[in-house]
Amino acid sequence: MMNNEQQRSDYLYEQHVTHLTLQGKRPATIDGYSRALRRITHHLDKSPDTLTTDDLKRYFAQLIKTHSWSTVRIDRNELQFFFKHVLQRGWER
Question: What is the pLDDT of residues 43-84, one digit of tens each?
Fold first, then answer.
């Protein structure tokens, strides 16, 4: 990622953790959701607010091959939370 995109990504990550904390999520949930956001951001090398449906399809197709279904569900739930609470956008399944 370019420097300004990395800064945007870092800002969104902090907003994400804040929203999780304010909603009273347990530390283990915050850790798992945060790890999922870092994983997808690193894997696609994009700020999470620029992810497209095609990006997500590619990501989850690869994740299914390399991780357990529980990890896939956590990542999906995390992204749904992120889109709804941080980006204030709808989530398409």
Answer: 999 999 999 989 999 999 999 999 999 999 999 999 999 999
Domain ranges of the chain: 3-86
pLDDT at residue number 93: 62
Long-range contacts of 39-42, Cβ-Cβ distance < 8 Å, separation of 24 or more = 39/75, 40/75, 40/79, 41/9, 41/13
Q: Tell whether domain 3-86 is in CATH 1.10.150.
A: yes
For tokens 């995109």, the residue is: 5
SS3 59: helix
68: left (phi over 0), alpha (psi -120 to 50) or beta: beta
Q: Work out the burial of residue 85: count CB atoms within 10 Å of its CB; fewer than 13 is exposed, 13-18 middle, 19 or more buried.
A: middle
